[in-house]
Amino acid sequence: MPYLSEIQKAQIVTKLEDGWEQDHSMRRKPGSRRPKISNQEKDADFVGFLTNNPFVTAGEAANETRFSGSQPTTSRRVKESSLKNRPAAKKTLLTVEQRQLRIIFSLNYIYRDLQFCDRVIFTN
What we know:
- There is one protein chain.
- The chain is mainly α.
- The protein has 2 domains: 6-80, no CATH class; 93-124, no CATH class.
- Helix content is 54%, strand content 0%.
- The protein contains 6 helices and no strands.
- It has helices at residues 6-23, 40-52, 58-65, 71-80, 96-108, 114-118.
- Helix 2 (40-52) crosses helix 3.
- It is elongated.
């Protein structure tokens, strides 16, 4: 949490007291928040681009559509749109030994019939 000076603390207390005197509430007034970076049209363009290009990252989509939000903002817009934003799974590559064993197996059974080949399954 950032450090607040005594002056800043006094200003906060004064604003809260003024708000209490006016409407006897500590709640924020409607519309008193910081304005959004984007509007509904920009959000729709951004989400539409992601929907039409599912293999594009959110950052690339933001650049293409000139979406002015930060990375957390783009993530929030994706989550709000109910799109799934998960990174792709990292698949391990075959080792040299695994490749050699597969080649040896293939060479040993190269002349077998198709029924045999249909039953062969290689997994990583």
